[in-house]
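User: Can you help me understand a structure? I only have the sequence.
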Amino acid sequence: MSAMDTSKEAMELISRDRFAAENGIRLVSCAEGAAVAEVTLEERHKNANGVAQGGLIFTLADTAFALLCNSDGKHGVGVVNTINFLRPGVGTRLTAVATMVGQTRSTCCVDVLVRDDQDRVVAKMQCTGYYVQ
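Assistant: Let's start by predicting it. Here is the structure, written out as tokens:
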């Protein structure tokens, strides 16, 4: 997906997300049932062991989920998010790819994979969303 594929709704949502902005999380693309967000790892993102703090990884994955489930004119909120941390978040960049698994009028299921800049899976999140509209 290119930046041209990015939905208007996703661009507007990320522009209002102060928490994502404070953490340096950016929208890469959002279209065709998938959203991509990324963060450049900085010292402020690291825990005492020198790797990406789990909260940053969760926030990155949750942001990709939110961008996807709010990208088609619906207002979705997270109901259940389950994350598995599979390896330390290291390198210079983390990327989260959210993919729509299933959707009804009122709910959605989304899988999110977070990868490092060596394309290694750092975390996997499974999300259930509820559409309030």
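Now, to help you interpret it: The mean pLDDT is 92. The radius of gyration is 14 Å. Let me know which part you'd like to focus on.
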